[in-house]
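Changelog note: in this version the structure field was regenerated for every chain. One regenerated record is shown below for reference.
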Amino acid sequence: MQRWSALCRRMSQVAACPSELARPYEEVPGPKPLPIIGNTWRFLPVVGDIEVSDVAAVSQKLYDVYGKVVRLSGLIGRPDLVFVFDPDEAEKVYRSEGDTPYRPSMPCIVKYKTEVRKEFFGELPGVIGVHGEPWRTFRTRVQKPILQPRVVKQYIGPIETVTELFIERMIEMKDENNEMPDDFDNEVHKWSLECIGRIALDVRLGCLDRNLPQNSEPQKIIDAAKFALRKIAILELKAPYWRYFPTTTWRKYIENMDYFRSVCMKYIQMALENLKKKDDKQELSLLERILETEKDPKIACILALDLILVGIDTISMAVCSVLYQLATRPIEQEKMHEELVQIMPDPNCQLTSEMLDKMVYLKSFIKEVLRMYSTVIGIGRVLQEDTVLCGYRIPRGTQLVFPSIVMGSMKGYVSQPHQFLPERWMKCDRSNHYIHPFASLPYGFGARMCLGRRFADLEMQILLAKLIRNYRIEYLHEPLEYKVTFMYAPDGKLKLKMSERKE
């Protein structure tokens, strides 16, 4: 009945509110801007009422106060933001956007790629911060190998090897209470970078070596990624002085991005040399497939740069969130362990794609965490034509935000939205649960869906399988609050207790 009601509602809204009956854009509700400084003041220190770290809570508040569509206008140096809290309207936008969807532009990345280092990036500057035909052309040239299931399966063994090493490091890191150190999130970043380095650059970067020096290449890559991503919100939401003169934050941003490029090019050149020596009968890696088909190695470098830039923080914070939820939900953790025992009777066996396919509860647990605690708090789009949304005429060029963190828990679109139910994602239980297919989209939708999503899923699944099959994790301290840095994740010391399971 829930599904039928939701389907009827969605069908009735397709023809609802024709353009001539829609209300004008100026009437879209939202916080009132002040003269001259608009709403930018809200993000300023001391006087402002919005902290970047609280954007998830702010999104919820906007919905609670203003309803399903909210206009945040008067942002110095950037167009209005229109928040849309309606999965039906999100679906309408996604399905009508064609093969070159536009995301909000990320001005700092655009400026870096198209102005500061234009001589390197040229006409095809990648997928991050790029739109239109250059984006489509680049993605078309690299997406076939990166999305092929058989190519992804090649990396089960390499990622499992990295993960086993990481679990060994976790055992070494335990204190007298069997708990992880205060900076455990940084250790997760090291595991994530080691996995991505193996996929995108064909190398073991050595991130999991004991006593990694602060000035080591792996740690510098991690620090650079954190800075580059976590300063985007600062550079783009607060007063954008960096557009007019080089602020300290902008100069540091350029330095970090330059460091990324130099590291990527170094390993791309090494891969080119290795490819020349490779036997024709040997299976090609992802990187080698791209290098073999592309004349310019910069294409592989730019892809690796984009994957590392976005992937390290995204996957790391998602893993921290999933581990925290597992550690605070013992019943669900035991269900996952029981499933893993059935699939992996030998706790030390090597994983196969067939085993991973059977881990239904494990995958459903990850999906439920990403529904309730969406790592990416929202998906952005730039309208390419005038559109009626929620009864208002929204003009072409408007930047839309679909806040997944709110829509994933909205009554009417998700049954029992505030209950943590991995079963809602399992085919055997879907008749008892409903979730709107556009309420929770952790990897986006359509042509701009996350390019590295198959590898992200693979990394998380392998880590949980190897860890929970053999160990129990707990969190015995005060509950952690979720905050936004660049991602939405538990804020504080993730002091997980790790105990070996006795069969």
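Spot check on this record: The chain has a mean pLDDT of 88. The CA atoms of residues 262 and 301 lie 9 Å apart.
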